[in-house]
Batch of 2 targets.
Target 1
Amino acid sequence: MSDEPMVPENTPKAEEPKPDPKISINKFFETELRVARILEAERVENADRLLKLQIDLGTERRQLVAGIAESYTPESLIGRSIIVVANLKPARIRGVDSDGMLLAATVDGRAVLASFDGEIPPGTQVG
């Protein structure tokens, strides 16, 4: 005999609580958001949606891959300031190294880059 109590088969199982999708302020501050300036932009070969960007983060230059090619031409991005998640682990996307992620909204299926009212120096912390 088992030590476990007998439970009728038709007894409903208790639902597991759903995780809270909200994060703490401390968790938010683990994300390093920085201003970056786009120095170069080009299409990623054999990838209709991807652009490869060279950015200035103030203290260093980095390369990002972003899925914004359907919304922006490479030429239109040169000199623009963007917000970047600077402390992501590097990833390889379609064979291209990406060291960070830019922030953009999606409006009617199109990417819209987050922007600023004035000139903000590259490397400035956002948050």
Target 2
Amino acid sequence: MISGINHITLAVRNIEESFKFYQDVLGLKPIQKSASSAYFLAGDTWIALTKDRTARSAPLPEYTHIAFSVSLTNFMEMKERINQSGAKEWQKNKSEGESHYFIDPDGHKLEIHASDLEARISSGKKEWGDSVHWYV
């Protein structure tokens, strides 16, 4: 049985630039850095950055993204820090809770989100009702 997400690996072109973004802008806890990789913790999830000369230079057109949890208390401060870094917004928030969607230096689509699954389910049940099969 799957017990959770072990780690997420992102291909990057420049370890130093990406390391600074994930540490200084997003505030992730660094674990390791070398010329070809860096590891961070985001809560209990390990985020790995791996230098890859074929890494993308622009975001993909699809909706796929990684969302990081932030407290509502820290949301505006985090959003401002992200905006001040020059990270571009890729979508406006359309869901429950506070969200900010932005792009990292390598074109990965990211989000900070100040809500939880319980709030998403509650909101979804009100919005979609019986048109969705709910397992919870």
